[in-house]
Design brief:
Elements (H helix, E strand, L loop, with lengths): L6 H12 L12 E2 L2 E2 L23 E8 L4 E2 L4 E11 L4 E2 L20 E8 L5 E9 L2 E9 L10 E9 L5 E8 L1 E2 L10 E2 L6 E4 L8 E4 L2 E6 H5 L4 H8 L4 E5 L9 H14 L2 E5 L7 H11 L5 E8 L1 H4 L5 H12 L5 E5 L6 H5 L4 E4 L10 E2 L4 E2 L20 H17 L9 E3 L16 H13 L5 E6 L3 H14 L2 H7 L5 E2 L9 E8 L2 E8 L9 E4 L7 E6 L6 E3 L2 E4 L7 E6 L1
Helix pairs in contact: 5-7, 10-11
The structure holds 2-acetamido-2-deoxy-beta-D-glucopyranose (10 copies).
One 2-acetamido-2-deoxy-beta-D-glucopyranose binds next to helix 5.
InterPro entries: GH (IPR017853)
Protein name: Glycoside hydrolase subgroup catalytic core
Keywords: Signal
Length: 584
C-alpha cells in the first residue's frame, strides 16, 4: 500500500506531468484510481474500465494451450502442455456451427462431447511436438506431455504453434503459445517455478541437496525496513519464529533502493534461515538502470523468491507501459523467478498494468473505513469520484464481501482477456493488518484478520502478504498461527494441488463462502462467515460426494460440523467464523 502523506501531493504532482495525456484528469486534478478525490474538484469519468467482450451470437471455441510451468531448465527433458477447451460466448473463435443451428454446437445424442484434435509444433523449425492428440470439448486442465530434448536451452521463450480441428467440423483453429527452457543456473541462484495450472509456487529446499521441488504457500507481511529490520538481522529470527515462510521488505523510499552493506547482511541471514525473499522495487522500477543494478546484485541469492515491481501503479497513475517495460527487463536479467505487483483499484487499466506481472496481488482494506463518505477528503465515494481507502467497495459495515468481489472481478477480467494473455495469472492477497490512521479507524481484530485471509484463499489466492509488520500483538499472534496451519505440508499440497470448488449452501453468498479442494487423495474444506452476523440459524453445506467423517481440523471448529451423507450441517455459524478441515 501507499505511504500516505508523503505521496499525496509530492509524488502525484511530478507524475501528473510525466504521464500527462494517459489519464482523463485535467492537469490540476489529483487522482486515485483515476478518480478526482479532492473536494474542490468535480467528478469525471476516470476511464480505464475493462468491460466484458461483446456477447457473441454464435458459440466460440475458447482454447488455451500453455506449458504447465512458467520455466523449464536444461536438465529437465520433458514438460507438459495444459489444454483448456471450452465453449464460450465471450472469447474465442467461432465454433463450427454444425449445419447452421447455433443452439446446438454438437449432437447431444452422441455418446460424448466431440474431440478436439491438436497438433503442436515449434514455430522456428516446424518440428512436431504433439501430433493429433484428442481432448474432449469442455475439458479444463487436460495435460499433454512433450519431450524437451530437441528444444535448445536459451534465455528467450520459444514460440509454439497450435493447430486444432473439431470432430465433424471442417474448420481449422490456430493459436500460438510460448515455452521457456533456460540453461541450468551456474551462479548459485535458485529457480522458483510457477505452476500455471493450479497457480502455486514450487521451490527446492536448497539446504538439503537433491531434494525435490515442493509447493510453497507464502504467508507473510510487508515488513518495515528502516524502523524495524535494518539494524539487526536477529529480527528475522523473530519474524520466522512466528511461522512466516517468506519476507517482503518495504524499501525506505527515494531513488536509492537500500544501503547494500546492510541489505547484504540481511540477505546472508535470509539465505541461512531459508526465509524466502520477495524483493520490492516500488520506488525504482521505472528506472530500468536502477532495476538492472538491483537485480544483478541479488539474482544469485538462494533465498530470492520473486521480484516485485509496482506498488499500486493503478492508484498512483504510474505510466501505463511501466510495469511491462520493467517486466521485459526482468525477463532478460533473470528468467528464473516470477514477477509480482499489487493493484489497489477495482477496475482501472487492469490489462495494461497486469501485462507486466506473473502474479497479481490485490489489497482490499475494508475494515473500519467509511466506504461511502471519505472523512479524509470530505467527499462522497462512488465509481467516478472520491477515495475512501477501498476502491469501489460497497459492502455494508460488518461485511468483508468486497474481498470476495475483488477476486470475482479479477477472475472475470482475466477470462475476458482470452487466450492471447495465456492462462489466468495467480492472485495473491494483501489483508489489512493495520489501522488507526488515515481512512481506517482501527486495526482488524484477530477474528476479522483470519476471515479476511481465509476468504482470499477460498477465492483462489495462492499467497498471503499482509500490510504491514510490525503489527498489533493480537494480529501477529493470529496470523502466525494461521501461517503455521496453512504451511503444514499436507495442507499446502492440497491447497496448491487443485483449484478450489465453490460449494452450495443454504445461505446467500453475502453470508457464507464454502470451498473444497481435492488433491492427492485428500479433501479439504474451508468455510468462512462473511459478516459479523454469522448465520442466524442452521447452516447446510452441500458436498459433491458422500463423505463419512471430519478428519483433522486445520483451523477453527471443524469438529462441530455434523456429517449427513452429502451434507455438512452446523447449528449456527458465529460472526466471521472460519473452519478449515479435512474430510473423508
Ligand atoms: C482541483 O483542486 C485543486 C486543489 O484544491 C485546485 O488547485 C485545482 O485548481 C482544481 N482543479 C480543477 C480543474 O478544479
Ligand atoms: C436447433 O436445435 C434446437 C435444439 O435441438 C431445436 O429446438 C431447434 O428447432 C433447431 N433449430 C433449427 C433451425 O433447426
Ligand atoms: C537503527 O540505527 C539508526 C542509527 O543508529 C537509529 O537512528 C535507528 O533508530 C535504529 N533503528 C532501530 C529500529 O533500532
Ligand atoms: C551503510 O550501512 C553501513 C553499515 O550500517 C554504514 O557503515 C554505512 O555508513 C552506510 N552507508 C551509507 C551510505 O549510509
Ligand atoms: C536511475 O538509476 C541510476 C542507477 O542507479 C541512477 O544513476 C540515476 O540517477 C537514476 N535516475 C533517476 C532519474 O533517478
Ligand atoms: C512509456 O510511456 C511514457 C508515458 O506515456 C512515454 O513517455 C514513453 O516514451 C513510453 N516508453 C516506451 C519505451 O514506450
Ligand atoms: C459515513 O459517513 C457519513 C457522513 O459522515 C455518515 O452519514 C455515515 O453514517 C457514515 N457511515 C458509516 C458506516 O460510518
Ligand atoms: C473536512 O471537513 C472537516 C469538518 O468541516 C474539517 O475539519 C476537515 O479539515 C476537512 N478535511 C479536509 C481534507 O478538507
Ligand atoms: C459520484 O459522486 C459525484 C459527487 O457527488 C457525482 O457528481 C457523480 O455523478 C457520482 N457518480 C456516479 C456514477 O454516481
Ligand atoms: C495467541 O492467541 C491464542 C488464541 O487466542 C491464545 O491462546 C494465546 O495466548 C495467544 N498468544 C499470545 C502470545 O498472545
Amino acid at each position: 500500500m501507499r505511504a500516505y502523506g508523503l505521496f499525496y501531493g509530492a509524488l502525484f504532482g511530478s507524475l501528473a506531468i510525466e504521464t500527462a495525456g494517459q489519464f482523463n484528469n485535467p492537469p490540476s486534478v489529483l487522482i486515485w484510481c483515476g478518480k478526482a478525490y479532492n473536494a474542490n474538484n468535480a467528478s469525471f469519468n476516470p476511464g480505464g474500465w475493462l468491460s466484458p467482450p461483446e456477447k457473441s451470437d454464435v458459440p466460440l471455441l475458447d482454447l488455451r494451450v500453455y506449458p504447465r510451468f512458467q520455466v523449464y531448465t536444461a536438465s529437465e527433458d520433458s514438460a507438459t502442455l495444459v489444454v483448456d477447451v471450452e465453449v464460450s460466448y465471450r472469447t474465442g473463435m467461432p465454433l463450427c456451427d454444425y449445419g447452421g443451428n447455433n443452439s446446438v454446437f454438437y449432437d447431444t445424442r452422441s455418446p460424448g462431447p466431440p474431440q478436439l484434435h491438436l497438433t503442436v509444433s515449434d514455430a522456428a523449425d516446424s518440428s512436431v511436438l504433439i501430433s493429433n492428440a484428442a481432448v474432449p470439448l469442455g475439458s479444463i486442465g487436460e495435460e499433454l506431455s512433450i519431450s524437451l530434448g530437441d528444444l535448445p536451452a536459451q534465455s528467450l521463450p520459444r514460440d509454439l504453434e497450435v493447430t486444432a480441428s473439431l470432430d465433424g467440423c471442417t474448420k481449422t483453429f490456430k493459436i500460438s503459445t510460448q515455452i521457456l527452457r533456460v540453461p541450468d543456473r551456474t551462479d548459485g541462484g535458485t529457480v522458483t517455478k510457477l505452476d500455471r495450472k493450479n497457480g502455486g509456487l514450487l521451490v527446492q529446499d536448497y539446504k538439503t541437496a537433491g531434494s525435490p521441488l515442493q509447493p510453497l504457500l507464502p504467508y507473510s507481511y510487508y515488513v518495515d525496513w528502516g524502523g524495524w529490520l535494518m539494524n539487526s538481522t536477529s529480527q528475522m529470527n523473530v519474524f520466522k519464529s512466528y511461522g512466516f515462510n517468506i519476507i517482503h521488505i518495504v524499501p525506505p523510499g527515494g531513488p536509492e533502493p537500500f544501503n547494500w552493506t546492510q541489505f547484504d547482511a540481511f540477505m546472508d541471514r535470509a539465505d541461512e534461515l531459508q526465509l524466502w525473499v520477495m524483493y520490492d522495487m516500488r520506488n525504482t522500477y521505472l528506472n530500468l538502470s536502477s532495476l538492472e543494478e538491483q537485480v544483478n546484485h541479488l539474482k544469485s541469492r538462494k533465498s530470492l523468491l520473486t521480484w516485485y515491481t509496482a506498488d499500486e501503479p493503478d492508484g498512483n497513475s504510474d505510466p501505463l507501459n511501466g510495469t511491462t517495460l520493467a517486466y521485459q527487463k526482468l525477463r532478460e536479467l533473470d528468467p528464473y523467478r516470477p514477477v509480482s505487483l499489487v493493484l489497489n483499484c477495482y477496475n482501472f487499466h487492469f490489462p495494461e498494468y497486469t501485462a507486466g506481472a506473473d502474479i497479481i496481488m490485490e489489497d482490499v482494506y475494508p475494515i473500519a473505513t467509511n466506504l461511502t463518505f471519505s472523512d479524509q477528503w470530505n467527499t462522497t465515494c462512488n465509481t467516478t469520484y472520491g477515495d475512501c481507502g477501498c476502491d469501489d467497495c460497497f459492502a455494508p459495515p460488518g461485511s468483508i464481501e468486497d474481498v470476495r468481489k475483488r477476486y470475482e472481478a479479477f477472475d472475470d477480467y482475466e477470462s475476458w482477456l482470452g487466450w492471447k494473455e495465456g492462462p489466468p495469472k495467480p492472485i495473491w492477497g494483501v489483508p489489512q493488518a493495520f489501522g488507526g490512521s488515515e481512512y481506517w479507524k482501527r486495526p482488524p481484530t484477530a477474528t476479522e484478520e483470519a476471515a479476511m485471509a481465509m476468504l482470499r484463499i477460498n477465492n483462489g489466492a495462492k499467497g498471503i502478504v499482509a500490510w504491514n509488520w510490525p503489527t498489533t500483538m493480537e494480529l501477529a499472534n493470529v496470523t502466525g498461527m494461521l501461517a503455521r496451519s496453512l504451511t503444514q505440508p499436507a495442507v499446502t499440497e492440497t491447497l496448491l494441488g487443485s483449484q478450489p470448488i465453490k460449494l452450495e449452501t443454504n445461505l446467500a453468498d453475502s453470508k457464507i463462502d464454502a470451498r473444497l479442494w481435492r488433491a492427492k487423495g485428500k479433501m479439504l474444506l474451508s468455510i468462512v462467515a462473511v459478516t459479523t452476523a454469522g448465520s442466524d440459524g442452521e447452516v447446510v453445506v452441500q458436498l459433491p460426494k458422500k463423505i463419512d467423517k471430519v478428519d483433522s481440523v486445520v483451523w477453527g471448529a471443524g469438529d462441530s460440523w455434523n456429517v449427513h451423507g452429502k451434507e455438512l450441517r452446523k447449528s449456527v455459524l458465529s460472526g466471521y467464523e472460519v473452519d478449515v478441515f479435512f474430510v473423508s
